[in-house]
Design goal:
Chain A has 329 residues and is an alpha/beta fold. Chain A contains 11 helices and 13 strands. Chain B has 14 helices and 4 strands. The radius of gyration of chain B is 31 Å and the shape is elongated.
């Protein structure tokens, strides 16, 4: 990681009284990426963001952002940061445009640039029609979009967004993520918290937090593999075949029967494994009627990871065992 | 370029505060219409004249004094109106107890005999007043009544003596009239002040100073505390705007708004109440600017030590109360001990009242008071900004 342009948390804990809200979290992020901090409500996502913004000091460990201690950001560094807090903290008596103009001015943007940039950002997040409406009279979703506009208006190098898509309809969420991707392509770094686990796919790196612990950290596909042990394929045959013919193969890590002649297998690499399995079954006289690579939803992936982290039994939706299937038959 | 950015950051807060304030109709009412109405009500209703006290005179039988209330009309000019003359002292005191009378004057039983014996006769004056200022006035009036009675007695004795002297052929027995003998001197007064203001003219500038101080203190204290209570420090701390810039932006905003209010109030004094300005408008404007600045410094200090909007309002009201008592607005500062005078010295309104009254009514500019306002502003701003940095930017 580039220490002077990225983010690094080293064994960071934060306690409030005797309650540990963030517990020895370590992570590093290179610039130009989107880090998604994902976890259930109360997991410690906002506290982690506030540690990165310097609003909170760590009880233990060190935090470095753009090579600096967030508690002592220099003015020059602050000019390059953007932040959208979870709570609405803009000015209810000011209109949409006035709020964005105020924040842009607070970041020292001169009038010509503000005149150009403000309509652009408001149109992007679909707030231009409400530009003259006072912020206090906007709906909850519109207020969040207004906060997002304020966080992005000065085109910051590094942005912290605390649940930017909460309460926003799916179509607009898509547009917001498209804008965040566009910024990433422009070399900007984004740290985003979200309760929508499906949004993990939008991120380059995902940090899954639960009860203050970092449960998993990596690219979305890596997390999927971590949760499931590999990639998942589903095989359907014309007639039942012994499960052992599948799970005992070298390229199959695990598997189970999910129907009378449907099998769910965990493999190292789906693209390589599927043709090999089909060839094998065909050679043994079985007829394969369908194959497909199953993209397990992130909800399932995170559920698995969280349960594993908490030491709870596996998700009932995981591939069933042969004995279970035979008993069912 | 960085200077330009600094200016943009400061003016961001200035513009925001002005727009926010103007968007609140209640604030506009309390800012401009409210103070104007207070001033108008004050000017129209206060005449500063003490109420005439109703007196009952007890004339003991055989005292030789008249029993007709009209005979005592001379007392009325002293602020006392004789409503009844009775001989029963108990009945007169019952009038006093019931509140129908403010004062009971008990005449001596036989003043002529007492005087002839070379002794002083006693006029007893009783009143029942709790208010110490009214009590002092009643006491003063009682002595005035006593003096008036003495004059009447001397006048009657002198007239009697002169008549007897003339009858006995004493030369020059009536050379000096009894009136002159009873009151050998009369006072001739002259006020050399450049103006003789009425009560509105005198208290008007002081009321403006008090209203402006209260508005400035309350507005900036609430504006700063509100930023904190709405969670905005989290945004501020990640912006390049520092505490001093935030405070500076708000000060400029409230100087602008305060100047508008001050202009309206001064204009109302000049046009509606015909209060003069014996000095220049520029000096009045300078004083109003300094008064607003020092008051804003006080408001910033209140914001720095307040942890909620409620506490800020309470402290602003305490400051208003302190100002009413100690600033010389109601009670003269000279009447206070050193502690009170010290408190008065640190209040912007004390200097503002003196400066405005001097400029408008005497045409004099007190440099010491102007410097005091500047010192109050400078001394309060620095520690307040340091304290606010902790709560406004450093979470």
């Amino acid at each position: 990681m580039d220490e002077n342009s990225g983010i690094a948390l080293d064994a960071v804990s934060r306690r409030f009284g005797d309650q540990t809200v963030v517990d020895r979290i370590s992570l590093a992020l290179d610039p130009g990426l989107i880090l998604g901090i994902i976890g259930p409500s109360g997991a410690g996502k906002t506290t982690t963001i506030r540690l990165l913004t310097g609003a909170l000091a760590p009880s233990e460990g060190t935090v470095r952002v753009l090579g600096e201690d967030p508690r002592r950001y220099r003015r020059r560094t602050r000019e390059r940061l953007g932040y959208m807090p979870q709570q609405f903290s803009l000015y209810e008596d000011l209109t949409t445009v006035e709020n964005v103009d105020f924040v842009a001015s607070m970041f020292g943007m001169l009038a010509p640039r503000r005149r150009r940039r403000i309509p652009e950002i408001l149109k992007l997040i679909d707030l231009w029609p409400a530009r003259s409406r006072q912020a206090g009279k906007l709906s909850g979703g519109m207020q969040r979009r207004l906060q997002l506009a304020c966080a992005l208006v000065h085109d910051p190098l590094l942005v912290f967004l605390d649940e930017p898509t909460a309460g926003i309809d799916p179509l607009l969420r898509e547009r917001i993520w498209a804008e965040l991707h566009r910024r990433r392509e422009a070399g900007r770094t984004l740290v985003v918290t979200t309760q929508y686990v499906t949004e993990a796919e939008e991120c380059d790196v995902v940090a899954l937090i639960d009860e203050g612990h970092l449960v998993a950290l990596g690219r979305p596909e890596e997390l999927r593999r971590t949760a499931l042990g590999g990639e998942v394929v589903e095989i359907e045959t014309a007639a039942p075949v012994p499960l052992s013919a599948l799970v005992e193969r070298e390229d199959v890590i695990d598997g189970g029967r999910v129907g009378p002649n449907r099998y769910r297998l965990v493999v190292e690499d789906a693209a390589e494994a599927i043709p090999a399995i089909v060839d094998g079954l065909t050679a043994s006289g079985a007829e394969v009627s369908a194959t497909r690579e199953e993209r397990v939803s992130f909800e399932e992936v995170f559920s698995l990871l969280v349960r594993r982290s908490r030491g709870q039994p596996s998700d009932p939706g995981t591939p069933e065992t042969e004995s279970d299937a035979e008993a069912a038959a | 370029m960085s200077l330009l950015k600094l200016l943009v950051r400061i003016l961001a807060f200035t513009g925001k505060e002005v727009v926010e304030t103007m968007r609140r109709p209640g604030a506009i009412v309390s800012l401009i219409v409210g103070p104007f109405l207070i001033l108008l009500a004050f000017g129209l209703s206060y005449n500063g004249v003490h109420r005439v006290l109703n007196a009952v005179i007890v004339v003991p039988p055989g005292s030789g004094l008249p029993t007709d209330p009209g005979s005592y009309r001379a007392f009325q000019t002293q602020g006392v109106q004789v409503t009844q003359v009775m001989s029963d002292e108990g009945a007169a005191r019952a009038e006093l107890d019931s509140g129908k009378a403010d004062m009971v004057i008990v005449a001596p039983e036989d003043p002529k005999t007492t005087l002839a014996q070379g002794r002083q006769a006693t006029i007893r004056v009783e009143y029942s007043v709790v208010d110490p200022i009214r009590a002092a006035n009643a006491d003063y009036l009682a002595r005035q009544v006593s003096d008036e009675v003495n004059r009447q007695v001397i006048k009657q004795a002198a007239a009697q003596g002169e008549t007897q002297g003339a009858a006995n052929g004493v030369a020059g027995a009536n050379a000096i009239p009894p009136d002159v003998l009873a009151q050998p001197t009369v006072a001739e007064t002259a006020n050399l002040s450049p103006t003789q203001p009425n009560l509105i003219s005198y208290f008007g500038p002081a009321a403006i100073a008090l209203i402006l101080q209260h508005i400035a203190v309350t507005l900036i204290a609430l504006a700063l505390v509100r930023e904190r209570s709405r969670g905005r420090p989290e945004i501020f701390r990640l912006s390049p705007t520092g505490t001093a810039e935030i405070v500076a932006g708000k000060i400029i905003a409230f100087l602008i708004l305060g100047s508008i209010v001050a202009s309206l109030l001064v204009a109302s004094l000049l046009l509606a109440f015909h209060v003069p300005i014996l000095s220049s408008f520029a000096l009045v404007a300078l004083v109003l600017f300094l008064l607003l600045l020092a008051s804003l410094a006080f408001g910033t200090a209140i914001a720095a030590v307040s942890d909620s909007e409620r506490q800020a309002v309470q402290l602003a009201l305490l400051m208003l109360l302190t100002s009413v008592f100690f600033s010389g607005f109601v009670l003269s500062i000279d009447e206070f001990q050193e502690l009170g005078q010290g408190i008065a010295a640190v209040l912007p309104v004390t200097h503002g009242v003196r400066l405005l009254q001097d400029l408008m009514l005497r045409g004099v500019f007190s440099t010491g008071d102007a410097v005091a306002l500047a010192v109050i502003a400078a001394v309060l701003f620095v520690p307040s900004v340091v304290l606010l940095r902790r709560s406004l930017v450093e979470a």
